Queue: 2 jobs
Job 1
Amino acid sequence: MKKGIFSALLAAGLTLVATVSLGAEPTQVEKVQATLNEWLAGRGPIEKVTGVAAYISFGDAGPAIESFAGKVGRGSVAGPVDQDTLYQMGSTSKSFTAAVILKLEVAGKLSIDDPLGKWLPDYPAWKDVTIRHLLDMTAPIPTYSETEWMSRIWADEPRRDLTFKELVDAACPSATNKLPPVEKGYFYSNTDYILAGMIAEKVGGKSYRDLVHELVIEPNGLNSTFYEAGTFPEPVIKRLSHGYFANQACADYQPGCKQPWSLPIVGRDMREASLSWAQAAGGAISSARDVDRWMRAVFRGKVVPPKQQHEWMQLVSTKTGEPIADVSANDPTGFSLGLAKGMLGPLGPRWFYQGETLGYRTLYVWLEDEDVMITVQTNSQPPEGTDKLSELVGALYDIVKKPEAN
């Protein structure tokens, strides 16, 4: 769950233009399958992946193309990726946290402009930070996921179930914990979302886990989406693809780094590791089909009333942290409440997000004008600079778009 959610997709220079066919012709399906096979054959050895899933939808209740390539893991006993295969969503499930908070606001239990001090007085250093600041990443709060403490747990205690408090304490300033200060503006911090999850629990009177199930998963019919605060049930793990950590980059809080703290887990299969380190910052597991169903509901305004929908979509610039009406050539990336938007080449401004955990990636792109969503998932955090999942999205879009008019 690094903070470079924009770089790979924007750097790909997607040349996607034209509208999309509302039908899924057999030749189209065959081309999608061939493209997945080709991408996996070329990128698999480089990005350390063994399989990939894709879901392309044309309208809320319209036709869709679902396709899979490769296997769920290494070795001869690994089965093929199929409709039952699951992947970790990573930060694409930050939208769950935003949804829970906004639904609590609808119920009159909080305002997203409430200060942190109102609900979590144990963190006086951040007492004036609002819930909105947490959700749009404009809070001056360090991220626990870039600390040595976090990397050591990944390496030495991979199955340890962590609490919200433990994660926040890893970022909270104290006499013994002095992380680099965060300058005013936009700063991608997973701590922000853990704090939002803590507020949700206090206000909602239930565990964050139960709130996600009651307010997100169940009402939206997400039958292949799962969230737990700690270890997931064995039936879920059995459906989860194996996930490989291959990133040898240094952590952000590791100045002068010669050997990354996370080096001991390079090459590991992280499937059995606890996902509790992510929780409200990106700890859900799902399928590409369910990610599509959820994100369509979000962007179509089917999750919360218009007032909260407006709040959900309000962007801040990732350059300045200031509110912006939309992204542009001069200000090409924006963040709202658990959602991201960017200038994607000739396509112009589009909502998208790539979520990443220690062995998984989930990427969706929402093409509102064409009523098309493309979601892809795969099973690695790849070596630094090798992530080309966005190129697969571009190739898939080229297949499903309509020919340009003469």
Job 2
Amino acid sequence: MRIAIVGVGNMGEAVLAGLVKAGHEVLAGVRRPERGAELSERYDVVHGSAAEIVDGADVVVLGVKPYDIVSLIDSLPLASGQLIVSLAAGIGTAQIEAAAPEGVGVVRVMPNTPAMIGEGMSIISPGASATDEQVAVATELMRAVGETVTVPERQLDAATAVSGSGPAYVFYIAESLVEAGVHLGLPRAVATRLVEQTLAGASLLLKSSDEHPAVLREQVTSPGGTTAAALAVFEEDGLRSTFLKATRANRDRSREIAAEG
């Protein structure tokens, strides 16, 4: 299977690396020759302009900014039978299908940055034009960089607010915990190491356990103890409602991008 990736930024490169590791034939579409040379040296892939690599590809992965999607599709030599996999937030499959030639299948995918280490979570939403076989192809490709879940497109903005942007929330929490440790008197290197392993271990425990997150939290929380004191502050300051407001803002921004596009 020949896969063309147009737009090889952080996420596009993460997908490219996973696909190369899985043994797929991957071509990189770049604007700057020096970026193409860098990718070729790093992953041993062929690079060229977007139009050059898309011609004859089975799958076209679009890793460009949402505002560039429609104009980019207009410029590509797409043909019936090809599959577009869009990684762009906000731009719906109907918009992409309207810009693409007839017979081109469209699937939206929202990955996240842990795909860079093969631990991504990719949300897959098929367009009306995508066949079951094409959806299966998109799913197989994204499993090269982590796990996948398929949802109706009407749920994709909500899923993006939780998973697509989720790593940023985790890094924000990590940053805040490190700073808290420093303010409590810990050396920054020690605070950073404590936070890194605590988040990594807690995540692995959550993933491997059949228990609800609330049960795992309760296992750490002795009545009247130190953890209970900290959690009481989170509740008092409305941390749960802040997450709700933040994810709603994320979802609404995705809808705004779609309207602007």
